[in-house]
Amino acid sequence: xxxxxxxxxxxxxxxxxxxxxxxxxxxxxxxxxxxxxxxxxxxxxxxxxxxxxxxxxxxxxxxxxxxxxxxxxxxxxxxxxxxxxxxxxxxxxxxxxxxxxxxxxxxxxxxxxxxxxxxxxxxxxxxxxxxxxxxxxxxxxxxxxxxxxxxxxxxxxxxxxxxxxxxxxxxxxxxxxxxxxxxxxxxxxxxxxxxxxxxxxxxxxxxxxxxxxxxxxxxxxxxxxxxxxxxxxxxxxxxxx
Length: 241
Known about the structure:
Elements: E1 2-15, E2 18-22, E3 28-32, E4 38-43, E5 48-52, E6 62-70, E7 73-82, H1 83-114, E8 120-129, H2 139-153, E9 159-164, H3 172-192, E10 205-206, H4 219-225, E11 227-235
Parallel strand pairs: 3-7, 4-7, 9-10
Antiparallel strand pairs: 1-2, 1-6, 2-3, 4-5, 6-7, 8-11, 9-11
């Protein structure tokens, strides 16, 4: 097989013999894992390598993947990462497993009370804004997101719905993808930095240039439309409980 590109990023999902790696630019690549794939963890001052199995490929580990171009897509020939990153991922996974039963019970209780309820009261909306064509969060946006999460934490039964938007520049397909990347970046920050629990997050969506806040005929208007709306919601059936 022909040698493929080297992929550097973070494992975000595993399913059987396939894994998804997200790179720094927000792109994701699906890579197949075979019995021939070499999995190595580097440790020590000289970076000595330790051979591991595919079960060491946990979500959240930054990896460097050497690939081959197969008929069905990319195949990993070698996957390497730092041993300390593996230890961190294992610690997080262990802690997550310890809390799983508690969180699962809370999720089911919330879902049970919200069954067949599709109308919500919007308790607050926070908009964070982006540069043209970008989905990176500014320092101001990061602060506003954590402030919003902290306020929502004090609201009984609150859920968060994240919706991404763009201005009118670019094609419909491009703007749809960009709005989804913006929504995804906000969700990741809310969960990872602001500690908002994933089970209290409604499915995010990207709305491209729909529902503009201002006219797209001016630079000022476009700037207002390049946003992600973070909506704190409570079902009308649960509001006040």
